[in-house]
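Regression test attached.
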Amino acid sequence: MSSAYKRSLILLPITLGVLAFTHVLSGKFDITFSQLISSFTSFDPDDLNHVIIQEFRVPRTLTTILAGASLSLAGMLMQTLFQNPLAGPYILGINSGAAFTVALGTLTGLSFFQSDAGILGSALIGAFVFGLIILMFSFFLRNIVSLLLIGIMIGSFTSAITSILLSISTPENMKIFTLWGLGSLQKVESGQIVFIFISFVIGVLHLLTQLKGINALVLGENAASNLGINLRSLRISMISITALLAGMVTAFCGPISFVGLAIPNLSRIIFKTANHRKLTYANIILGAHFLLIADLITIWFEPIILIPINAITALIGAPFIMLIIIKKLK
Amino acid sequence: MTLRPGEIKALIGANGKGKTTLLRTLTNQIPALKGTISIDDVPIALMERNNISRRIAFIGPGFKGVEGLCVFEYILLGRTPYLNQFGTISEDDKTICLEALRVAGIEALKDRITSQLSDGQLQLASIARAIAQNTPYIIMDEPTTFLDYRNREIIFNLLIKLSEDGKGILFSTHELEFVSKRDIPVIAITNEDQLIQFDQCPGIDELVNLCF
């Protein structure tokens, strides 16, 4: 078991590298490995291939890796916090919050809110405002199940308002909203990657400082408290990290479903551990794998049909995860 | 009431008389309604949570195991009060946990998943976790509920051995026969809601009349 983990420490980064290169090189325009290298070593702004690599391919690959890793980590935190394998990064309503502000923004009819930057801005505000609301509740709600229910209620309430907003909006605005809701990994510009990257690093670093408490929380809140863990500060940390990771990805890429639910479960099944130091690594690397593969499939299908990433994650992911669960838990 | 290192005491009382509440108060999970609880003359309310968990280990009832959590990882969690924020586990921590496995007599279960263990095995693993916590006191809420006769005997023998090794042990129980057979000192919550201490276990009949 332990040696299997050590082997995965070497093996999985290699397969991730291979996948990442395949991902960069795949697409409508054929790009060779040497062009990829030369676009970094001697960038030529007049070379179309270089521009495609630097402006579209590499940002998309990096976004995919970071989004897969961030959502999986956020899902892991929520599943451990609520001790429920059905929890995910969106269980506390961060996606509904972002959807609400995006709908609100497009409804104003101002062209700014229909541009990519406007949608990004309103989604960011929504994700973090709703993250903060949940955080406020977590200050005075002692019972974790109450917090979960409040999160779900806020999510449903907000979704209801969003659907009303949509019903009175124009077909064009509704289309903008729907496209955002389908998720996309290709809208992130090279300059914006840095925001996702920084929030990912902050989230992971903060998570590492909470590992002791998160590991103890596996035994339940009472047991963790008896082991000397300050539950309140642990809970606030876990919710803040989740809001940061899931909020950032949702703002830039839309609400990408399934990854944050499936990968934490998959990580536990494959690595057979409840040690969150190992699970953190597992979720980062498996989440990145999973979303790269899912996005590769959408790229390969692009000449025939444009499949939204959210359809692929569940379409490919669900049967695959089912297979693993049946095989491992038989 | 007092509990000294090296002592073992059984808490007896009818259902709903507040045994669990008392144990949870003693371990600072709920604030005391009145009176003061002190560990080594320091009031528990003034102690830091982490310091309390270095003094008292608590084993609650009904732990069912956790999917993916193996016995050794479970016992390592007993080291939590001594770890840094990153949860870094040292070789010393591992040695202490291996020793705890040995004392509890469950070396063979080391790599088993806790959610697949029997109730008896789980209880032994929980005691091993409390041993790894390396506290002078261990408090347990009904450690032998759901256990068969042989497993109850194993648990009671282990608890008595731990007290002989110098730990102060307090556990709530309904096993009057065992307590009386092993002559374990008793703290009884009576029908009149009085707390009475017996340095020697009274007869079963007397306890039944007093408490039930």
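Expected vs. actual: identical. The beta strands of chain B are 8-13, 38-39, 42-43, 56-59, 137-141, 168-172, 186-189, 195-198.
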